[in-house]
């Protein structure tokens, strides 16, 4: 047996004297753990965070740092956009669906402005300017970006306003987010044990009263006077759990800091906790938003399948999950030249050809496939229409020779999401422990497990089968805060 | 709390005197339970089966009764087909994949001829004749049918031989299969408690030593001297479990006898058992194999997406899981008239039109969508080719006016799979408890749970993400037998 993968619970009676204790134990010091620790400590609890790595941050610190927020934040208003909680809800229930958790989503939208201000109070700065380009990750310090809100059908179900909130730094901003959150938790009194990997829950009857962990090969025991909060992240780094629950990510790149080992989920399952949405994944293919808008994305048969101006994660899911591979980006010279350098990320064509029939041969497509697809596209684009997929008219223009095909399997050079995988595709998991809106973990019979909370990607949050950038950091911190407050209010102080 | 959904385990020490006991307890008297009970009893164990319904049969008895068997059975040989275990394996690892359990699959293919003979020894008859039509369910007593083995790409990865084995009765044959298996288990000495719903496992330390159940509202306790075998079926009838694990089936019809409540899976999860593939589902849309072969299947944009001569469950999955709805079957008058009455199932066109542009309007498709798709199809069909999807040349013929569109949402009339749902789609779940090849249930740390076995759709079997008719009855009985033998060999006789 691989002891690194043992999550068997321990009974309190078998421990005797615990090595350490606190009111609230938090396992994992990413964004959800930091938010939970801050709130629990601020509510007066003595909080101790166990972190497997040598220091805090986790996958949150490696992320882009976008926070999906709205409902009328100061940044939205400064950029001239009116938003409301209802409008945000109308968008997200479709964008994160089908089967979004509407109860969690409602709370998240209603609390979004307050959550935004909470980040500002923790010292995070968001500049009052909108990035106008199409990008996974703006290279500017603009505080706001579009995440597909202005694309069909989202512009029909809700008023189109941008909600991607970005800390004031270029490109990846997760490090800055975590720097502020960890500082806030620490200043509130949270202690941290690093290099300490939680491996199992401690039970007293049916209640969770602590954690056992490994530190430098030794077992260490922790008593929780009030509650344990699991914020260990998802399971993209555990191949066994991927095979059992989300095999579509096998073989692809991992959006993580390398320690999303699913241990919190497994510790919960080991005592009978329920899970939800374990097969749901976020997926990013190496397709440039600024490029597919101006051209088209086709499958291995040369067929289009989506309006290319949607949030690029959605186009990625549509391709990788639902369309035969390989996928190709087709664009003409005029479109390629029109892409601003800052949004081009050094992506170069795999093939260039004067004719579509030549490009079909280069790509191994059925003869006539691209000619037919482009002819149909051009015929409608002349009139500013896309009756098949409803790409916004501002991107519609007939494609003319010479043509180019880009191979997303090559990834982005250098770096960028997907750049680290041989498939050009990378992702992470969204499923996890089933929780109440306060983060209490439920067992398979639907009962709350006394003393156990979870948040972030160790839990299943507000997502159904859809995803938008910033909703994982957003839901991790929002429901992490709620879990921290509920854990601090735990009743086992004796 | 809904006590009908409580699966909390009970500790043996809290029970005192058990109401009943046996060497091996089996929960659920469908095909896997009957096979397990037969083998355990034949191996000398005292076997007691608990069944929630008033009598045995379960969803197996309501099923078509096809058994996916091969490797050179007497029926295959009588019909003139050479097959081997390797050839069967080559087909199934692709057809049940990606991510089929190759260890289980290998055993299944290697043991398939023996398993076929086991059914015959239990009194089941398979006539030595092949049904030549294209159908979900032949109306004849032919003992063999094709299940897509002769369609691309399966005819490339393996030699095409038919493996759908059918008991000697018209149409649905599950009742006959279960009649024989229940009789065999009973003659071997198995006792049955009907109207008895197992609700929780009894634990002694980490070992499973019994079951608690409800009968007419009262709790009844059962001790297992050797082992418990969970064969309670899948979870398509539990809306909560569907929402958490396989939401794509929400709102669709259920292929079950109404009691696939996931209780065995939940009882296992309640003590920390691992699961696998909980999001995997079989799906049947109301599309007639004999009709789509002769015409085409298109999505809401008028695009084809699969060679229409595949196993119709695969075409259903391709449509429902991956293509925008509504889906349409397009055929011309000549093709419609060519369908044998016995394979037509009274399915009638929703729209008939002299022109494709007229049909596009009827169906609300983008203008030119069907004209383009049919023109491409016809151009290649003239030459007996289908370069996009590789439908077999015997089905290729240009489609000519007048044209018809069939709406699969209408279901089959009368009855037929999908007929009972408002969407024309129905399905069942394939995920469940993670087991060894002998049916021992594993916990989330990968350790065998002492005294606990599972088979059939309460477990995750040899399936990856694909499905073929007859592989669920096949895997349920094959691994049910193995679980029964292993349970009977249990070591807790004292």
From TrEMBL, chains A, B:
It comes from the Bacteria. The keyword Flavoprotein applies. Keywords: FAD, Flavoprotein, Oxidoreductase. NCBIfam families: PRK07121.1-3. It comes from Actinoallomurus oryzae. Transmembrane segments: none annotated. This is FAD-binding protein. Its cofactor is FAD. PANTHER family: 3-OXOSTEROID 1-DEHYDROGENASE, FUMARATE REDUCTASE. Pfam families: FAD_binding_2. InterPro entries: FAD-dep_OxRdtase_2_FAD-bd, FAD-oxidoreductase_2, FAD/NAD-bd_sf, Succ_DH/fumarate_Rdtase_cat_sf. Residues 23-472 form the FAD-dependent oxidoreductase 2 FAD-binding domain. The keyword rRNA processing does not apply.
